[in-house]
Amino acid sequence: MSESQTAIKKQVKVLEDGRVTTPKGFHARGIHFGLKRKRKDLGWLYSEVPADSAAVYTTNTYQAAPLVVTRESVSVENKIQGILVNSGNANACTGEKGLQDAYQMRKEFAAHAGIQEHLAAVVSTGVIGQHLPMEKILNGIAALVDYEVDGNADDFEEAILTTDTCVKHIGVELEIDEKKVMIGGAAKGSGMIHPNMATMLGFITTDAAIDHNDLSEALKQVTNSTFNMITVDGDTSTNDMVMVLANGLAENKKLTKQHKDWGLFLEGLEMVSKELAKKIARDGEGATKLIEVQVKDARDKEAAGVIAKKIVGSSLVKTAVFGADANWGRIICAVGYSGQQIDPNLVSISLGSIKVVENGLPVPFDEDDAYNYLMNDTIKITVDLAQGNESAVAWGCDLSYDYVRINASYRT
Amino acid sequence: MSESQTAIKKQVKVLEDGRVTTPKGFHARGIHFGLKRKRKDLGWLYSEVPADSAAVYTTNTYQAAPLVVTRESVSVENKIQGILVNSGNANACTGEKGLQDAYQMRKEFAAHAGIQEHLAAVVSTGVIGQHLPMEKILNGIAALVDYEVDGNADDFEEAILTTDTCVKHIGVELEIDEKKVMIGGAAKGSGMIHPNMATMLGFITTDAAIDHNDLSEALKQVTNSTFNMITVDGDTSTNDMVMVLANGLAENKKLTKQHKDWGLFLEGLEMVSKELAKKIARDGEGATKLIEVQVKDARDKEAAGVIAKKIVGSSLVKTAVFGADANWGRIICAVGYSGQQIDPNLVSISLGSIKVVENGLPVPFDEDDAYNYLMNDTIKITVDLAQGNESAVAWGCDLSYDYVRINASYRT
């Protein structure tokens, strides 16, 4: 690591209780309005002033109605002030009526929040193919925005969840132009998590002032190495997106790629995204362990990424990790079917610090050590291709009985 | 269907107890030699005369040692007379010693069977990365070929299994040049079953006389629409192959593409391959149901195939079928992330005869009817893209608790 990078690292500070409301001027609320049985299911994220906004959306051909409406909002002037999220119903594959419902949701939310309609975003997650219960939704919106502005970010974090078992948040602090700048985030994930940003909700807030185009590019770049590198079950959903709001209240000079602290901001954004992504992977449906796969010394970054995702997405690797079975044959097998040009005789594999394959051949190792290592709640698999200098990391989780239980009965 | 096709259909007859030994001059045996705990683990398939041979192999970069040796055998004069198969150990990722072991296995087998070495094929399946226990293997070979030639095909079918729960065989009869021609097959599958012929063992025998090049082409063609259209868990193994042996003892005029009954032979070969493929899918690890996905009215066959395999490979679709939950949202979602150009608003989906989606929108259906349908042991999902005239069928199985149980503890 170069000296300047070390210097940058030092300046991004993870906050103990950081979240979407940590940056100046952001507020969040959540209530239960009746789509889920007991847990909160309607949430609201709000900036005191319109915030520059960038987003990445699912690549699924089926894009849910709220995505269409939110894209439209963002396109007007690249600003968003309020985001309304419901869980329990995805408003996807709901046709013209679904689209009208999403528009109505946006309209009512904007009216109650006192913001212009094109500054409002709407987001839905949950079951596909059912119409939203609009009367309930409208009552919920009325109730939600009547609350005091200083609501509770916990409630928002809970309201966006589906089969997640825990809320996911993080916040970091950095200094730009001698101003404190904060970046916060909240996310939901669980099932249907797979590459290509197709698979979860991520909300990132910052009080930095930042050029819209550069923010947009930064989000894409960071998403590729974080949210797009996680997989739970290989399915890619119709609804999901990551959105970043930058409201400028930190009063730094507008960040651009030319700003001397651009790298620092990027680092902070990546840290927030990576932590959220890892939290999503760790909380994959039925997961008992986080799996982190690093593929290194690859010829190029893309190949490293493909191989890392093949390994972390392999049902056989996932079940082996669940069973704490050091079955490296399944790992090498996934390397082999990744479709990437590798030299089988150069590949080495480690589980944590235990080397199990060297130059394509098994290395004797202590089975008890390996079993003990695989009983940890974070499992690191390292694959060295010995072909070059590029690397990539992907995250996923093990495949347990509970994954089957949860998904064999999700809808009913 | 045209009249001539109807005529062809009539002439392929499925035999009640057809198997690899149904065609003239084929014999098979199996014994327990001690690699598996109790079940038979060494098998032998033998033709009284050298047979024309064609094979398709795994696309995994890691190809097991026996594949290398078998390829070499076939390459000498495209003929094979005997195939030796062991289960319990894949002899993959075993380096130079593994390769020498495979050569020795071939040599000893050829010597005991009294055939030329290049007419012998060796096949291994099981755990990756452990050396074969050669002393046991050699004793097993000696014991195996000392048996009477009229062995039992049941034993062979059992000896090639790993985590399979049942043997898989089929045999058909057709008439060519007024001679009875038989085609028989045996297969193993279970885990690591995925497209690209990377994932199972299939042995097909026929007493037809057939031109080698045309046999080779026919096998590739048929494999693409059968063995390559099944998936259990998306993993692609290092060892697997489908091999066909044609010994000519039926005494028909040599079959070529120009022969008037070429289509009939192809039909027979496809029927045998398709039945074996379906049996493999139905017996996927932990499977309780066979899932058959037909994608029709696609713009091209390839797109139809990709979409069918995405659906049948989706963990969420598989768990929904396991739970008899008519969660068509997961099916349409898989269509959406298939990466194929489709029009979301034209897609219709049926579960059996129950239409659940029409033109991209949900159709009201009776949940009880759907539940009852999904309790069958074969589930047909039909997706109509309304874009063209091409179609494809893929097969898979549901994802159950038992898949997790089996794979969390396979190696230990």
UniProtKB/TrEMBL annotation, chains A, B:
GO terms for biological process: L-arginine biosynthetic process; ornithine biosynthetic process. Coiled coil: none annotated. Its EC number is 2.3.1.35, 2.3.1.1. The record marks A198, T199 as: Cleavage. Keywords: Acyltransferase, Amino-acid biosynthesis, Arginine biosynthesis, Autocatalytic cleavage, Cytoplasm, Multifunctional enzyme, Transferase. It catalyses: L-glutamate + acetyl-CoA = N-acetyl-L-glutamate + CoA + H(+); N(2)-acetyl-L-ornithine + L-glutamate = N-acetyl-L-glutamate + L-ornithine. Substrate binds at T162, K188, T199, E285, N407, T412. Its main location: cytoplasm. The active site is at T199. It is found in: Cytoplasm. The keyword 4Fe-4S does not apply. InterPro entries: Arg_biosynth_ArgJ, ArgJ-like_dom_sf, ArgJ_beta_C. The record marks T125, G126 as: Involved in the stabilization of negative charge on the oxyanion by the formation of the oxyanion hole. It is an enzyme of class 2 (transferase). Gene3D superfamilies: arginine biosynthesis bifunctional protein suprefamily, ArgJ beta chain, C-terminal domain, L-amino peptidase D-ALA esterase/amidase. One of its GO terms (cellular component) is cytoplasm. It comes from the Bacteria. One of its GO terms (molecular function) is L-glutamate N-acetyltransferase activity. The keyword Transferase applies. Pathway: Amino-acid biosynthesis; L-arginine biosynthesis; L-ornithine and N-acetyl-L-glutamate from L-glutamate and N(2)-acetyl-L-ornithine (cyclic): step 1/1; Amino-acid biosynthesis; L-arginine biosynthesis; N(2)-acetyl-L-ornithine from L-glutamate: step 1/4. Heterotetramer of two alpha and two beta chains. Catalyzes two activities which are involved in the cyclic version of arginine biosynthesis: the synthesis of N-acetylglutamate from glutamate and acetyl-CoA as the acetyl donor, and of ornithine by transacetylation between N(2)-acetylornithine and glutamate. HAMAP family: ArgJ. NCBIfam families: ArgJ, PRK05388.1. This is Arginine biosynthesis bifunctional protein ArgJ. It comes from Exobacillus caeni. The gene is argJ.
